[in-house]
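As a warm-up, study this chain.
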Amino acid sequence: MSNVCFISQEATQAILLRVTNVCAECYDDLHEGDIIHYDVQNFRYICKKCQESLCARMNEACEVTEEENPNLFC
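Now compare it with the structure written out below.
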């Protein structure tokens, strides 16, 4: 499933300068040479930790099936 939901690649200087230099999920810094993952469902780059967390909550259609906080007012 992770191969379909994410595209893994090495963070290049071009990506870090033109697209993002932080994870779109946790906002940790991304550094040149890091392996980053493009979330094809949400069109964003995320770090390995967030990719693994999302992957654990996704079904075969790349949809998140388990929300961490399902209610706004919990």
